[in-house]
């Protein structure tokens, strides 16, 4: 039968023995099916969906009920208290609920909806908050003692509308969340299904990708996974996969349990000896695997030094660091080249042996030894580094039939190249030379050298017959050659060329000379032993010096203008910088005569250099 919305809920509340009752509400134009054991009321649209009631009633009963309800028009909403309501079991008499009761019922429904919407919409949702506020307002109205039915009815209608709006929002949100979850699962599954080639890819990246994929499969299969969990797993998987796909292919080499791998060095022309430290050579280096691994992975040769700490020989670098090796062989055997501009303290010198200028067939036509650079080397220095077998071969093939080493077999090696060559020539021993007395001592005799100035050192040395002797010998009777200069406290030999040397800093220096006969004569030392040469050493005292003024020259002038400082400068060799040059005097270029100018320059320590210049004006 027809009834009002309020009567309908009153009917539900007061008919607990009615199961699956059906009632038609005209003003809402919908058919309600309900069960008192079920909290929610299922709303079934009139007409097409009416047949859903047939699960509870036969089609004929449902149709008859609908027809009877519509045609009889019994009991409108304003009927008095006693009203008959058509039910599935027959006629039942009940009282029409009051407006207040309808509001109470609406509050109960609203609270139920508020509970259901809390986990879906959340307490911060505007619709949820509106319903909560409406419930509070309705409850406050119910507590009032002077509220009229019109106010109850209006509030009941408003609350029901907000409840319906909240329910619709919850259903929509649930549907959206369900769709979002479904979409997220589909998206994650699509990424899981992507096939990736991991061959020759970096091990760590591949391991990370496998781990991320395993985690993605777990999250996908977990019924408790949320959209954010699915998206997070998908993004991590995509990122790991892209890292693998975008990474270059590498060659993997095992290092063994010690994490080390030997790398062999060679030059493009096949040399395999490289400088390691003073007097020592190397032909290999070592790479170290990253912590916790027993392998290295190489994309290009630069990885050997950048990632795996390969130490290269001094003065050498990888010939082509950007080369992408084709196989393991090209990693464990690499080409090196000299670093441009590097200065070597030693050179690997290959000596070719000749006799009378010609290479002869022998067991040892050449040999290679490490020689210091930057000063004159002698044959005797070379032979000290040879093996007994090599010396035996030299004596057998070269030092026979009266042959000797050509005295001109002296070598000076530059610092620019590690690999150098030289020749040692053996010549017929000349006629026996006389033996003369050689010096037993030498001295600079207290001479003080100035820092920054170049000296021809043999000019300053004095030779004496015996140690502690005051009998001086004539330097002109000997060939005096500087062999080395070493600064006090250092073992490094400084560069000397043509017996000339510049002391760059104040202090003490040891200067070693080789004394030979002027015409090749043998020398008799103070003990009476004959020698081809005698070594003597001297201590040179070097003091700070004034700057060196250059460009000061006497000139004849005939122009109208005159420059006092053009081309004139002063350099402090100790501080290694130019200093200011000052002058006194004046030149009148318009007046003939001879003018005198005084120039001076002072360094940071107060040392002053002075020079005089004469200018003639014509």
Write up what this structure looks like:
This protein has 618 residues and is α+β, with helices and mostly antiparallel strands. The protein has 7 domains: 5-97, no CATH class; 102-178; 194-249; 252-338, no CATH class; 346-427, no CATH class; 435-543, Immunoglobulin-like, CATH 2.60.40; 548-617, Immunoglobulin-like (Sandwich). The protein contains 11 helices and 38 strands. The strands form 13 sheets. The protein has a 5-stranded mixed sheet with strand order 22-31-28-25-26, with no helix packed on it. α3 (99-121) runs parallel beside α5 and α4 runs antiparallel to α5. The longest helix has 45 residues, at 149-193. It starts with a helix and ends with a strand. 23% of the residues are buried.
């Amino acid at each position: 039968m027809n009834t009002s919305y309020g009567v309908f809920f009153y009917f539900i509340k007061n008919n607990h023995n009615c199961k699956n009752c059906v009632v038609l509400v005209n003003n809402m134009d919908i058919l309600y099916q309900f069960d008192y054991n079920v909290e929610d009321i299922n709303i079934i649209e009139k007409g097409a969906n009416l047949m859903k009631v047939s699960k509870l009633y036969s089609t004929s009963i449902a149709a008859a009920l609908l027809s009877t309800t519509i045609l009889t028009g019994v009991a409108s909403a304003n009927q008095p208290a006693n009203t008959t309501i058509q039910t599935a079991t027959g006629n039942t008499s009940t009282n029409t609920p009051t407006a207040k009761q309808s509001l109470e019922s609406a509050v109960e429904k609203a609270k139920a909806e508020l509970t259901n919407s809390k986990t879906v919409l959340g307490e911060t949702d505007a619709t949820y908050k509106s319903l909560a506020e409406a419930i509070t307002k309705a409850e406050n109205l119910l507590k009032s003692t002077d509220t009229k039915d019109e106010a109850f009815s209006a509030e009941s209608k408003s609350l029901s509308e907000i409840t319906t709006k909240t329910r619709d929002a919850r259903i929509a949100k649930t549907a959206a969340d369900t769709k979002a979850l479904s979409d997220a699962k589909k998206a994650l599954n699509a990424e899981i299904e992507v096939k990736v080639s991991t061959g020759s890819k970096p091990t760590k990246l591949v391991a990370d990708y496998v781990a991320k994929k395993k985690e993605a499969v777990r999250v996908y299969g977990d019924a408790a996974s949320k959209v954010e969990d699915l998206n997070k797993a998908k993004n991590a998987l995509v990122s790991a996969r892209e890292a693998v796909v975008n990474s270059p292919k590498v060659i993997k080499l095992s290092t063994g349990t010690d994490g080390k791998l030997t790398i062999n060095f060679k030059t493009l022309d096949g040399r395999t000896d490289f400088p390691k430290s003073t007097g020592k050579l190397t032909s290999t280096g070592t790479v170290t695997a990253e912590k916790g691994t027993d392998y290295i992975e190489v994309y290009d040769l630069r990885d050997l030094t950048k990632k795996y700490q390969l130490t290269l020989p001094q003065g050498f670098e990888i010939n082509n660091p950007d080369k992408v090796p084709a196989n393991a062989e090209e990693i464990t055997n690499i080409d090196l080249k000299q670093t441009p501009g590097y200065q070597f303290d030693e050179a690997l010198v290959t000596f070719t042996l000749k006799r009378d200028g010609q290479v002869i067939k022998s067991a040892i036509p050449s040999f290679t030894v490490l020689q210091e650079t930057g000063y004159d080397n002698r044959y005797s220095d070379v032979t000290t580094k040879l093996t007994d077998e090599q010396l035996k071969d030299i004596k057998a093939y070269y030092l026979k039939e009266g042959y000797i080493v050509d005295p001109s077999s002296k070598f000076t090696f530059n610092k620019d190249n590690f690999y150098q060559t030289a020749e040692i020539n053996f010549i017929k021993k000349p006629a026996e030379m006389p033996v003369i007395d050689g010096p037993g001592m030498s001295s600079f005799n207290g001479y003080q050298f100035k820092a920054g100035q170049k000296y021809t050192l043999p000019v300053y040395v004095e030779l004496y017959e015996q140690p502690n002797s005051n009998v001086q010998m004539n330097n002109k009777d000997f060939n005096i050659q500087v062999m080395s200069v070493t600064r006090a406290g250092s073992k490094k030999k400084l560069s000397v060329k043509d017996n000339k040397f510049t002391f760059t800093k104040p202090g003490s220096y040891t200067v070693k000379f080789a004394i030979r006969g002027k015409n090749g004569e043998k020398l008799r030392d103070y003990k009476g032993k004959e020698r081809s040469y005698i070594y003597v050493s001297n201590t040179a005292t070097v003091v700070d010096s004034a700057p060196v003024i250059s460009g000061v020259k006497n000139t004849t002038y005939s122009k109208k203008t005159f420059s006092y400082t053009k081309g004139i400068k002063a350099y402090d060799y100790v501080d290694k910088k130019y200093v200011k040059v000052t002058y006194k005097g004046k030149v009148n270029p318009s007046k003939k005569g001879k003018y005198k100018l005084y120039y001076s320059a002072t360094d940071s320590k107060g040392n002053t250099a002075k020079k005089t210049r004469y200018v003639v004006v014509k």
